[in-house]
Amino acid sequence: MKESAQERPLDAIDRALLQELQTNSRISNVELAQRVELSPPAVHTRVKRLEQLGFITHYTAILDRQKLGLDMLCFIRLTLASHDLRSIENFRAAILAMPEVLEAYFLTGEYDYMLKVMVQNRQHLETFLLERITPMPGIARINTSLVLTELKQTTEISLDDLAPPDSPHG
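User: That's the sequence. What structure does it adopt?
Assistant: Structure tokens below.
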């Protein structure tokens, strides 16, 4: 029987492993073992368990979008005209297929969705909005904001603020 995350909460070593891997997922198993003061085989076993339990979902390289010529970052908020299941599913499928969309969120409040979009320049943004977003059936309203300065951009989740391992909420 496969253990669930609730059956064995994260201990201090698991948290240290996750923190180290968030900072550098290419770290060698030997270096990781030294940092958390365990043997390499024990670290390997723990990391595999964290992967199997779904705490680690995948490993990736983060690219510099500006060096790739993708200088414009935008947030696009959308409201759908209809909220029937078919319209929502069609919208979601279309958004998932757009490589310019880095992130997409279903929201409460004034807008239904918010998209984080990366494009080369103003002309690329105009083309994306006029040829990809606006013609989509069921879009009632579009609001676009351009990012002037990225103050913070991270993929790391702070593990310091989580409840301690011995807490009933940990």
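The longest strand covers residues 72-80.
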